[in-house]
Amino acid sequence: MFNRTRRTRINDNIRALIRETVLNIDDLIYPLFVVEGNGIVEEISSLEGNYRYSVDKLDEIIKEIERLGIRGVLIFGVPSFKDECGTSAYADDGIVQRAVRRIKEISNLFIITDVCMCQYTSHGHCGIIKDGYVDNDETLKFIAKIALSHARAGADMVAPSDMMDGRVKAIRNILDENGYKNVGIMSYSAKYASSFYGPFREAADSKPQFGDRKSYQMDFSNIREAMREIEYDIEEGADIVMVKPALSYLDVIRWTRDRFNHPIAAYNVSGEYAMVKAAAKMGYIDEEKIVFEILTSIKRAGADIIITYHALDVARKLNNR
């Protein structure tokens, strides 16, 4: 006599009945790139099937996102003006601020805005440079100003991605002091210095002009350090914590789920997306099956929210089931 677990795998019906992890449209957030200019709907060459939109061209994609049942977007701005301090990042008429106002006019989508400086600085780093190094405490002042400008524009949640120490507290303080107590914070809490970001840096024009980001983004060898980062962000007021990237960091997501009773987002990043697209184009994999397997693994590891460039395709498939 031995246990026959195969009896619960014998056909589609029983497999569906006992399935432990099910991917839903409600799990997904779609990253959206907005650029200066007019009449622009430009495919991102490194992120096939994803586009940069000028503000006047947002209506159609926003309506499609809503029609598919996706509840939230993460907005990235690509400015036309850069300087040493990233001043266009917190301008009232900045690209993200105008995009948020337009989306609020036409939809009820939950709007999250990326709060960082790398797209807006001439040097491409995520903060203020002093003596060739990103100055943590000086950068906090600018990160807080950016978050406040996004809240004033109508953002529902801000997502600091800079990895400066203390930025969640700085943002929470400035939002509360200015009457934005209900604007949430999704913190990029465990953001690793990863090689999976290449396509994004083309999409957002955010490649550092010297050096790298290893002094502020995390060493990919470390997991206990990630738990400290997440703990500190929760203590400082983060409403949602994020692990980025996702696929090579499923263990980090799992550790986070086991240790914290807090909503977890995972970012299925550009390099992960691009690898799937490239392999599918060569005929090495079945793209649809691989995408569902990857995203299900991220949810199975413990993520409540998955930020992914696959969101539109996955939602279309789920709607047709």
From TrEMBL:
The active site is at 191 (schiff-base intermediate with substrate), 244 (schiff-base intermediate with substrate). 5-aminolevulinate 2 binds at residues 270, 309. This is Delta-aminolevulinic acid dehydratase. Homooctamer. Gene3D superfamilies: Aldolase class I. Belongs to the ALAD family. GO terms for cellular component: cytosol. SUPFAM superfamilies: Aldolase (SSF51569). GO terms for molecular function: porphobilinogen synthase activity; zinc ion binding. Keywords: Heme biosynthesis, Lyase, Magnesium, Metal-binding, Porphyrin biosynthesis, Zinc. Its EC number is 4.2.1.24. Catalyzes an early step in the biosynthesis of tetrapyrroles. Binds two molecules of 5-aminolevulinate per subunit, each at a distinct site, and catalyzes their condensation to form porphobilinogen. It comes from Caloramator proteoclasticus DSM 10124.
